[in-house]
Specification:
Layout: H1 20-38, H2 46-60, H3 74-87, H4 91-99, H5 102-105, H6 110-117, H7 119-134, H8 139-155, H9 158-172, H10 179-199, H11 203-217, H12 219-231, H13 233-253, E1 258-264, H14 267-277, E2 288-294, H15 301-315, E3 317-318, E4 324-325, E5 338-343, E6 349-356, H16 357-374, H17 382-393, H18 401-412, E7 416-420, E8 426-430, H19 435-442, H20 444-448, E9 450-455, E10 458-460, E11 472-476, H21 493-524, H22 531-540, H23 546-554, E12 567-569, E13 572-574, E14 614-616, E15 628-633, E16 637-642, H24 648-654, E17 659-660, E18 672-681, H25 686-697, E19 701-710, E20 713-722, H26 725-736, E21 741-746
Helix pairs in contact: 1-3, 2-4, 3-4, 3-9, 4-7, 6-7, 7-8, 7-9, 8-17, 8-18, 9-10, 9-11, 10-11, 10-24, 11-12, 12-14, 13-15, 21-23
Length: about 750
């Protein structure tokens, strides 16, 4: 029952320096360690299959090396080890993990694997090969393939679990990659893989993926928080010991079998708290959580968890708003636990998590453990329901690529709320779901006729956002039908797809009128109504489908006056050449200073170190010294974004092929607009002191300044022209040193 503070700083890739003989020994050593980890799950004949898979992978990859310099076979073995050790998968999954890159990267075919290991393993390896090809292609194709992957997920979730293990090992060895690759892979990870790990119930993996992504996307912040965590470790351990001492005595005297330890919060979750609450590291109260693991029989789990809760709250005062009961209502990924926050010694809030060993295994090994404990149970549980919902969502085939990925994230990877029907049945929905989402969740027909709802017996509109614990009654009308603006009120894929289907049907009905109109007009100029001619008209008006064209004609958005400009050649028509008008770009006076002069170019280097024309993104306003990447935008050329830009993750994850490696040239002649927000104690002359530092001491030009004072506090925003990041950091440090200044933060949005 020792207190253990778990290690949180992710792996760093060490320099590889083994010779050929040492390599062979290391490969054998890693393989034997894998067999040892698998020993409890190995049945008769499994050893031979594992040996065959290992030899096949070793031979297939024998000439290949990773970026770290090590033999490629290290990677599949490491992935297999993560599958066994950290997820709890068995022999079949281990074989698939060993072979997961063979079809994509070597001469081995899917047929070879099928002949050697059978259909089941070949199918999983095929699923893994498809995923790998997804993430290197353009976004629309990516989304289509992503749909296929998710279909395999509902057939065999092991595909996703092995892929998550593959991604985790790649993230652990990402130091060896170039920066642009690090940014792309980290963004993909935080965008899709970390939420997917969370949804699969793999909390430890989700946490590590988030931390490792942050290590590359927010490098400075990551290092700073990691350093502060290391500095406060001794103090934290001392406090944990003080906190748990009376709890251990109580639990022991009551006869509980248990483990208790302190666990630091992840760097990523601490950073989220700092951003969300606008506080400093020192002000984040719950830097760690206390975890109590009970050794309880299944039939007594709930009772004993609540008993322990009662003992804790006898010792320390709980915060009623911070009780999370996932015993009565487990999450749809199977997570069960009791969380409470109590007031510990020295007036500090401490989070306590109470779970049994079975619950802990499900929390750490997610889906794999879930199926283990499900064996023998006939009940359809929440995991199964989740798979069914994914299948339903995948039924929509004409979703645009990025929309699909976004919908998938908000519908299936988001945190959840639980709500009740009028009869008291519990339904799980993603956070931010509306009454309309709930209506479609119950049934498409109910959603389509929904005119409002009663939430906790109070009448609300369809757009009303639901909260956990709400009881909802849907009000319908036969006269109601879905409209375009409904799409702004829903987040679930089911609701969105149902609304789009209904709108499409209505559009088709209206478009029939448009078809009749264009037929008449074409006959009027001596042409016929056929696919070729409709294509000509559609392209002329720059539309994407016949349906869109006919609908716009029917709704009088297009009057077809231009048809008389078309040439009629037999039964075909030819569109006139479009007139190209010169486009004027109005100058933004506030940004004039950031445009480089002819002889003082701010050179951005790509792979070929060429000078490239570029613009600076207005969403994040990069300045020299910032970590940046170039993004090739359609029609706008190269746009420079900060790696910490609010839009960076999505751009890098979905359009990685458009990212260009960039770096700043040294230049002190050009100024860049940026902004700072300042919070502090209101004091006579505080504005004068701030402006004196900016203009007087540092000779920095001020573009705008606003200060608001309220009840002894002031909030201010300052827009300044600086030459580079160093100058900005010096300015921030100088302002922070003034008495009464609480916070100084750089703007991270387009509000500058």
């Amino acid at each position: 029952m020792d207190i253990q503070e778990e290690h949180i700083i992710p792996n760093v890739v060490s320099q590889y320096n083994l010779d050929e003989e040492q390599e062979k020994k290391e490969i054998v050593r890693k393989y034997r360690a894998l067999l040892r980890a698998l020993r409890p799950k190995i049945k008769k004949g499994d050893k031979e299959l594992l040996r065959t898979a290992f030899e096949m992978a070793t031979n297939a990859h024998k000439t290949m090396r990773r970026k770290t310099g090590e033999p490629y076979i290290f990677h599949p073995i490491s992935v297999a080890m993560i599958c066994v050790d950290e997820i709890g998968l068995g022999v079949r999954s281990t074989i698939c993990a060993l072979l997961h890159d063979t079809v994509e990267d070597t001469d081995i075919t899917l047929e070879d694997i099928k002949d050697e290991f059978g259909n089941e393993i070949a199918k999983i390896v095929d699923g893994l090969t498809k995923i790998s090809s997804v993430m290197d292609t353009n976004s629309s194709q990516q989304a289509e393939n992503f749909k296929k992957i998710l279909l395999t997920l509902t057939d065999d979730p092991r595909v996703i679990l092995i892929k998550l293990a593959d991604r985790l090992h790649n993230m652990r060895t990402l130091d060896a990659m170039k920066q642009e690759k690090q940014l792309k892979i980290s963004s993909e990870t935080i965008w899709v893989y970390a939420p997917l790990a969370h949804r699969m119930g793999l909390y430890n993996m989700k946490t590590e993926l988030e931390d490792l992504s942050m290590k590359y996307l927010e490098a400075d912040t990551y290092k700073e928080i990691a350093k502060k965590l290391a500095e406060t470790k001794r103090e934290r351990t001392k406090y944990i010991n003080e906190f748990v001492r009376p709890l251990k005595d109580k639990l022991t005297s009551e006869g509980f079998q248990f483990e208790i330890y302190g666990r630091p919060k992840s760097i990523h979750s601490i950073w989220n708290k700092i951003k969300k609450k606008g506080v400093s590291f020192e002000e984040v109260y719950d830097l760690f959580a206390i975890r109590i693991l009970l050794d309880s029989p299944v039939e007594k789990e709930k009772e004993e968890c609540w008993k322990v809760y009662s003992l804790i709250t006898d010792e320390y005062l709980p915060s009623p708003e911070r009780l999370r009961d996932w015993l009565s209502n487990p999450k749809s990924n199977g997570y069960e636990a009791l969380h409470t926050t109590v007031m510990g010694p020295q007036g500090k809030w401490v989070e306590v998590q109470i779970r049994t060993k079975r619950m802990n295994e499900i929390a750490e090994k997610g889906l794999a453990a879930h199926f283990k404990y499900k064996e023998g149970s006939q009940n359809e549980d929440r995991f199964d329901k989740w798979f069914i919902q994914i299948r339903e969502a995948l039924g929509s085939q004409d979703e645009a690529g990025i929309d699909f990925l976004q919908d998938f994230k908000t519908s299936f990877l988001a945190e959840e709320i639980y709500v009740y029907t009028p009869k008291g049945e519990v339904k799980m929905l993603p956070t931010n779901s509306s009454a309309l989402d709930f209506a479609f969740y119950i049934h498409t027909a109910i959603g389509s006729k929904c005119i409002g709802a009663k939430v906790n017996h109070k009448l609300v509109p369809i757009s009303h956002k639901l909260r956990s614990g709400d009881q909802i009654e849907i009000i319908t009308s036969n006269k109601q039908k879905p409209s375009e603006d409904w799409l702004n009120s829903v987040v679930t894929a089911k609701a969105k797809n149902s609304i789009k289907d209904a709108l499409r049907e209505e559009k088709k009905t209206i478009a029939e009128e448009g078809k009749y109109t264009i037929q008449r007009k074409l006959e009027g100029i001596g042409a016929v109504y056929n696919t070729y001619n409709i294509d000509q008209v559609m392209n002329y008006y720059k539309l994407h489908s016949h349906l869109d064209l006919l609908y716009r004609i029917a709704t009088k958005n297009i009057d077809l006056k231009e048809l008389k400009l078309f040439q009629v050649l037999g039964d075909k028509i030819e569109a006139p050449k479009p007139l190209v008008l010169p486009v004027e770009h109005p100058q933004d006076p506030t940004l004039l200073k950031q445009i480089p002069k002819k002889d003082s170019e701010l050179i951005i280097f790509g792979e070929s170190s060429d000078q490239i024309k570029y613009t600076l993104a207005k969403c994040c306003n990069p300045i020299p010294g910032d970590d940046v990447f170039g993004f090739v935008s359609t029609g706008k050329g190269l746009i420079i974004h900060r790696t910490t830009c609010p839009n960076a993750t999505q751009l890098l994850a979905n359009y990685g092929h458009r990212v260009v490696k960039t770096k700043w040239a040294k230049n002190k002649e050009i100024s860049f607009l940026t902004g700072l927000s300042i919070i502090g104690m209101d004091d006579v002359g505080v504005v004068n002191k701030i402006t004196n530092i900016i203009s007087g001491e540092l000779k920095i030009n001020i573009a705008a300044l606003t200060i608001e004072s309220q009840e002894g506090l002031f909030k201010g925003t300052i827009k300044v022209f600086v030459h580079d990041k160093d100058e900005l950091e010096e300015l921030v440090d100088r302002i922070k040193s003034l008495n009464g200044i609480q916070q100084v933060n750089r703007f991270d949005t387009a509000t500058v």
